[in-house]
Recover the amino acids of this structure.
């Protein structure tokens, strides 16, 4: 099941339809119809600006928010929870449109932890280790919040927590008890990789962990699924303003000075030199290395030869439009269509920028941006859904934690070495990264997996994943009669060309500055009052990276910059109750 098979959530226009309708010039072009793109478009529309066009590569809107029907219910392949209530615009939007149930009857929640030989851990031990782990994690966050200096040679969250675990376990005399507690800590660290979006917590910078701001109120699940929040956002937008199945190939952004020879001469710059920067690309290159994300695999040789003539004709026409355009920005699409705009809001995920950022922009992005894109982490987190004909798990149990023994690639003290796992090792051990199975309903289980093991799982057929999960459940539940699922669905966020991963984390050596660098807008000339290209998405919010509300707020901020009237005064961002952080930042202390 592809993440692109979910419902679109809105009436949209395809590239083919628009080719017929054909309006080429717009005030604003928004690249990407995920939460950041939809937020930008909504903010523009609500403020009377409808001269915008959203270009989306997928055949649907929503980006990393997507659901499918499984049995009698919808399952979320992407975003799952509204993270926090206080100051969360997603919570307010959901409340406003009646998507949150006020009467919330809590389901019984009982977590059990089992070892590979099927023995269940006493609950008090599980609780003891969980409380200690939370304490260790909070201490890691304090380095950012309190500007402490870490111990020597400790640079990552994983290293720090393992040090704390080692000191903690030194107080346990019985080797068997010590080993059991170590397995629980290992399981919780695997869980943390899924929350954070990485392969190992050894990848996450210790000094930056606390930069993520957690909103109060816990995680909220929408009864109708997270994807139900897309409809109210799309209802405000004219359907002809959203163009799906239209991947962007290039964004030509440094144009204005190039085509106004007189102005260029007056500013002491050479128009010819600037035009040459554009002319280096004649639109007829055959090398595929510079192509941005495409929906389907490339066609076979015969089809490719048949399409060559038409493609060349389209590219020649595109090159002509690009060369003659007087617009600030020209956006060139994979299907050969070209759009012109005063401004572009680029909401492509960090994973796509990592894969294609160096060739997507003409001229290339400034070096500081490329370096920051490289520095940040964009990990893979996948879900495994298992649907059954009948319930088989004890009705009171909501989750079973899997306490795997240490992998073969462990060193003398039992900790796993963080060298790159090879293909053979992944083949034999990938499933040991699944840290638990939780109940979505009586007949639907959900497993989580992260990192390189998740990427390996994406290459496997669903049947093989289902078989392996059945073996795991039989082993840990000590029950050879656990049924095989009637259906298995796995996500493949790394393999998806329009995401290339799941969400952003701050890697060792990176910082909030890298997020700010990516968010910095691009100006075509120093005399512009408004930027030519702005960036939005969860990877551009320094406090709420990795979240939907971070994407939403970044999209709204980009739109607000364009809406703010030109004046020599400082730009004042709009501030409302739904963005508590910017409201607090706006308070001036005398």
């Amino acid at each position: 099941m592809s993440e692109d098979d979910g419902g679109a959530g809105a009436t949209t226009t395809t590239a083919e339809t628009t080719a017929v309708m054909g309006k080429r010039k717009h005030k604003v072009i928004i690249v990407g119809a995920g939460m950041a793109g939809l937020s930008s478009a909504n903010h523009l529309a609500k403020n009377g600006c409808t001269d915008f066009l959203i270009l989306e590569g997928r055949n649907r809107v929503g980006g990393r928010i997507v659901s499918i029907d499984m049995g009698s219910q919808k399952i979320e392949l992407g975003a799952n929870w509204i993270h926090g209530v206080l100051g969360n615009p997603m919570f307010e939007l959901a409340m406003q449109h009646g998507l949150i149930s006020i009467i919330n009857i809590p389901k019984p929640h009982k977590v059990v932890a089992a070892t590979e030989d099927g023995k269940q851990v006493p609950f008090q031990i599980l609780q003891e280790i969980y409380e200690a782990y939370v304490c260790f994690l909070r201490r890691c966050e304090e380095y950012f919040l309190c500007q402490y200096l870490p111990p020597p040679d400790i640079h990552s969250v994983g290293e720090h927590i393992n040090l704390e675990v080692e000191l903690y376990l030194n107080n346990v005399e019985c080797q068997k008890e010590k080993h059991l507690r170590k397995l629980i800590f290992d399981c919780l660290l695997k869980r943390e990789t899924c929350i954070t979006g990485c392969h190992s917590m050894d990848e996450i910078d210790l000094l930056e962990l606390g930069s993520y701001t957690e909103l109060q109120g816990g995680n909220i699940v929408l009864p109708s699924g997270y994807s139900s929040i897309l409809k109210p956002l799309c209802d405000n937008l004219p359907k002809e303003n959203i163009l799906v199945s239209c991947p962007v190939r290039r964004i030509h952004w440094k144009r204005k000075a190039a085509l106004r020879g007189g102005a260029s001469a007056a500013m002491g710059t050479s128009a010819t030199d600037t035009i040459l920067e554009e002319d280096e690309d004649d639109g007829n290159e055959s090398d595929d290395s510079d192509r941005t994300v495409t929906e389907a695999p490339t066609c076979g040789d015969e089809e490719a030869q048949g399409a060559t003539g038409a493609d060349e004709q389209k590219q020649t026409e595109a090159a002509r439009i690009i060369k003659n355009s007087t617009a600030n920005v020209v956006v060139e699409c994979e299907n050969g269509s070209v759009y012109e705009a005063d401004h572009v809001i680029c909401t492509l995920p960090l994973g796509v920028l990592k894969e294609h950022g160096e060739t997507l922009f003409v001229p290339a992005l400034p070096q500081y941006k490329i370096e920051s894109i490289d520095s940040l982490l964009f990990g893979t987190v996948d879900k495994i859904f298992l649907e059954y004909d009948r319930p088989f798990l004890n009705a009171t149990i909501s989750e079973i934690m899997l306490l795997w023994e240490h992998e073969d690639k462990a060193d003398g003290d039992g900790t796993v070495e963080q060298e790159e796992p090879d293909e053979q090792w992944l083949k034999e051990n990938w499933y040991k990264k699944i840290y638990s199975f939780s109940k979505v309903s009586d007949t639907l289980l959900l497993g989580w997996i992260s990192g390189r093991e998740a990427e390996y799982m994406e290459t496997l057929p669903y049947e093989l994943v289902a078989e392996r999960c059945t073996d795991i459940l039989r082993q840990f539940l000590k029950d050879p009669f656990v049924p095989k699922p009637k259906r298995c669905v796995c996500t493949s966020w790394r393999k998806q060309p329009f995401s290339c991963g799941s969400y952003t984390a701050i890697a060792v050596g990176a910082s909030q500055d890298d997020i700010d660098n990516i968010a910095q807008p691009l100006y075509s000339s120093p005399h512009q009052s408004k930027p030519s290209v702005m960036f939005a998405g969860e990877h551009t919010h320094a406090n709420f990276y990795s979240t939907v509300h971070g994407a939403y707020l970044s999209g709204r901020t980009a739109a607000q910059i364009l809406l703010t009237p030109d004046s020599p005064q400082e730009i004042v961002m709009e501030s409302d109750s739904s963005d508590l952080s910017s409201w607090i930042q706006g308070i001036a202390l005398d």
Summary: The chain has two domains: 22-100+222-255+325-377+500-565, 110-221+381-405+430-490. Residues 110-221+381-405+430-490 form a domain with the Polyamine Oxidase; Chain A, domain 2 fold (CATH 3.90.660.10).
